[in-house]
Design goal:
This protein has helices spanning 2-11, 14-17, 23-39, 41-52, 58-83, 102-120, 131-135, 137-150. The chain has 161 residues and is an all-alpha fold. The protein is elongated, with a radius of gyration of 24 Å. The protein starts with a helix and ends in an 11-residue tail after the last helix.
């Protein structure tokens, strides 16, 4: 959330930060954005997958989510490069098409930051319980074991492996 706040603090008065006398303030705000990017979203990419994936699938699912995150980061980095090009064709870098400009690109990034913060609130708190307890996988395993031991063939459950 703090990253989003500092992003909009940078973007809303963007023309103010482009003047030569205000470069130090720009660098300070930009540094705060990077600090909170590593403190917030970067940390959650390691914490959230460890909490939401079941133990027996955790390593595979964590690899898939990490690969997806890195792929989207690459797309975002190149997308920002193209989107940040000026709207005036005479001012674009050589070989790039016109874009929406730096200010508008930063506004889009700020909105994406806010959306990411919103989606983070949808991740359920586990309150110290393991995923097996939450999904009641252990209860299913105990029932299967009791059924196997008692020799009862009737009410068995199929548990995915």
């Amino acid at each position: 959330m703090m990253m989003t706040i500092f992003m909009f603090a940078l973007v809303i008065p963007y023309d103010h930060w482009t003047h030569k006398d205000n470069h130090i303030g720009f660098v300070i705000l930009y540094s705060l954005i990077f600090f909170f990017a590593n403190f917030g979203p970067n940390a959650t990419t390691f914490i959230v997958p460890a909490e939401i994936f079941p133990a027996r699938l955790r390593s595979t699912c964590h690899r898939i989510s990490a690969a997806a995150g890195k792929t989207v980061a690459i797309i975002g980095a190149f997308g920002f490069l193209y989107a940040a090009q000026p709207m005036d064709p005479s001012k674009t870098d050589a070989g790039y098409p016109t874009g929406i400009g730096v200010k508008n690109s930063l506004i889009v990034l700020g909105c994406i930051n806010a959306l990411g913060a919103l989606f983070t609130f949808f991740v359920l708190e586990v309150k110290g319980k393991s995923l097996e307890e939450i999904s009641r996988e252990k209860e299913d395993e105990i029932e299967i074991e009791e059924t196997r031991i008692s020799g009862c063939v009737g009410n068995t459950k199929t548990v995915p492996v």
